[in-house]
Give the backbone structure.
Amino acid sequence: MAAQSDADRAAWNAMMLSPVGALAPLARDPIDDDARQANVWIRYGRWRYDVDDALHNNVGVTLFRPIPFPLPSSELSLTGAYVSLSCSLCPSWVSAGASLSSTLWQQGEVDEQWSSLGVRADIGGAHYRGSSQTDAGSFATAVVAGVGVPLILNWHLSATMSPGIGQGRIALADGVHSGTRRTLGAALALIHASGLALNVGIQKIMIAGGPTEVGAGLGWNR
């Protein structure tokens, strides 16, 4: 990774180890009482520090639940994840996070062509399972713009783009470091009326020379 300040590197590391960076975003439909959405997701992501680094794999499970606040069209999600570093002698990281999203504006219904604008807030943390007992935490917010188009056989396609900003904090052997980084995420999902969904996404924590995290997800309505 290109030379950066300690604060830049701290923010990037903390956010990439938390679910907000380790797992690419999901393309969610606006909350609709009449539509069945996937509320259980199995997610996979992969990233590396730079072009010379090995790929690091992340696996997580996310649960979604509609809630009546702060807006009627709000949704809470909880995520647990496992970050496996591609190093035979490197212990793994475990992480967890929560996300709150709300739709501010929507035009069109979910079963037809639609567009929407919303906001999302993410908080998360990660713990290193090695002898150093390193911990990391992050908080991020994003504006989420979405569009959807109907297909055939009760399928539709949803796409989102989510620019934002986040703060990360990580405790290392030489002390605690923190900083702020801009973020950019995008996702595309193929969704069935039953709630079954397939998702691909990318996430970029902005830092010079940093990678783009790529991920996929499988969701269903439970």
Remarks:
- The domain at 6-220 is CATH 2.40.128 (Lipocalin).
- The chain has one domain: 6-220.
- The longest helix spans residues 6-17.
- Helices lie at 6-17, 19-22.
